[in-house]
Specification:
It is a single chain. With 126 residues, the chain is of the alpha+beta class. It has one domain: Alpha-Beta Complex (endopeptidase fold (from Nostoc punctiforme)). Helices cover 21% and strands 30% of the residues. It contains 3 helices and 8 strands. The strands form 2 sheets. It has a 6-stranded antiparallel β-sheet. The chain is globular.
Length: 126
Amino acid sequence: MNQYIGLPYRFGGRTLDGIDCLGLVKVFYREQLDIEVPDYLYSMKFSVNDCAETIAKGSFDGNWRLVDDAQYGDLLVFRVLGLPTHVGVDIGEGLMLHAFQGRNSCIESLDAWSHRLAGRYRWRTR
């Protein structure tokens, strides 16, 4: 897990050299879960904000399903300024991995973000 901590934030970043919240989800899913999450930001011409909001509405591409139970690797969508515009990954034990604008990627307690949680999603093939 240490390879994902302290990565510099870079909007649109998709590598360990610079990463945004969706990029971190993509890298984590590929390396830890062997799932190739589409790069919605580039392939669909959405911004990260649009992607998170659309996943939260359950109307994206059919790969994500809303779940209630917590499981390692779940995609977490959070509201920022009232809109579902941020994503992170549940890594168990009440913790999440995420990259937030202006900060390096980190692990944080889900409790600190629980009031912002818009939904918990699981890739359909898991």
